[in-house]
Automatic annotation (TrEMBL):
<dbReference type="InterPro" id="IPR053135">
    <property type="entry name" value="AKR2_Oxidoreductase"/>
</dbReference>
<dbReference type="Pfam" id="PF00248">
    <property type="entry name" value="Aldo_ket_red"/>
</dbReference>
<dbReference type="InterPro" id="IPR036812">
    <property type="entry name" value="NAD(P)_OxRdtase_dom_sf"/>
</dbReference>
<dbReference type="InterPro" id="IPR023210">
    <property type="entry name" value="NADP_OxRdtase_dom"/>
</dbReference>
<protein>
    <submittedName>
        <fullName>Aldo/keto reductase</fullName>
    </submittedName>
</protein>
<feature type="domain" description="NADP-dependent oxidoreductase">
    <location>
        <begin position="16"/>
        <end position="280"/>
    </location>
</feature>
Length: 293
């Protein structure tokens, strides 16, 4: 698996990352979660992203983590849903970091993201300062912001964050055009989320109310097909090899699906002609198609 520096931080990450929300999926047992996580490492995937809001994901990762800690670059999110603390306050950040350390059974979080924190809150400084204080204390190695559009641009331009997480896929190229060139110039690491565009191409009819509905509509307007008739391979290669992207995270409960994505990354970037085809199909809509939160 291709490994890359995470911006100018001290961290190195796999070009394909794993989104760990699915290890809390419905009837997945503890043993099945462990088998999946073992398989993630066997594929050479070293970046694992989780969150407080992913049910039992952090807890299961914590129970699995101990013998694998030095092989994993671990990220999670903070700033909300902390008992006794108001969301998006310094207390929510400080207590959220302490809670994550306990639950994940680790002495540091490699990347801690403020997830979808409103730009007005970022600008007041209290929440960002609390995160940076945790970084100074060694509890967090890299300070990150996860979000889209105006708030993401502010975070990137502020000079305060080491890593950004944003949607980058064939149907969501806003950040690819508006933020990533700047991040690359500044040495900010970029974690690309939703590289498969929620696999919106699976649906023959518009999936009303489903998370990928917007992407389904966009793909219909773009009217482009993968040259190799491989939606997954095309999508992950487009995202993972976008200039400035450090890692593209795929969330799945299926090891075979992750292996498919890993094999696609092994093939390298899309041919330039095909990459330009997707860019050209998006360009007429770039003024109206903002980043999907």
């Amino acid at each position: 698996m291709l490994q890359r520096p995470l911006g100018s931080s001290s961290l190195t990450v796999s070009a394909l990352g794993f989104g760990a929300g699915h290890i809390d999926v419905g009837d997945m047992t503890e043993r099945e979660a462990r088998v999946l996580l073992d398989g993630v490492l066997e594929l050479g995937v070293t970046f694992i992203d989780t969150a407080r809001g992913y049910g039992a994901s952090e807890e299961r990762l914590g129970r699995w983590m101990s013998p694998h800690r030095e092989a994993v670059v671990l990220s999670t999110k903070v700033g909300y849903d902390v008992p006794g603390q108001e969301d998006w306050t310094a207390g929510a950040v400080r207590e959220g970091v302490e809670r994550a350390l306990r639950v994940l059974q680790t002495d540091r979080i490699d990347v801690m993201f403020l997830h979808s924190c409103p730009v007005e809150v970022l600008q007041t400084g209290e929440v960002v300062e609390a995160l940076l204080a945790c970084r100074s204390a060694g509890k967090v190695l890299a300070a990150g912001y996860s979000g889209e559009n105006v708030a993401l641009s502010w975070a990137g331009e502020s000079g305060l964050f080491d890593v950004l997480q944003t949607s980058v896929n064939i149907a969501d190229q806003h950040s690819r055009r508006a933020v990533l060139p700047f991040a690359r110039q500044r040495g900010i690491g970029v974690v690309a989320k939703r590289p498969l565009a929620n696999a919106a191409w699976r649906y023959r009819e518009r999936p009303i109310g489903v998370y990928g509905e917007t992407y389904w509509q966009r793909l219909r307007h773009m009217n482009v097909q993968p040259q190799a008739d491989d939606w997954v391979g095309t999508a992950i290669r487009f995202s993972a090899f976008t200039p400035g992207v450090s890692t593209a995270i795929v969330g799945t409960s299926s090891l075979s699906h992750l292996a498919h994505a890993a094999m696609a990354v092994d093939r390298g970037p899309l041919p330039l002609e095909e990459a330009h085809q997707w860019e050209d199909a998006f360009r007429p809509h770039e003024a109206e198609w903002s980043g999907e939160v």
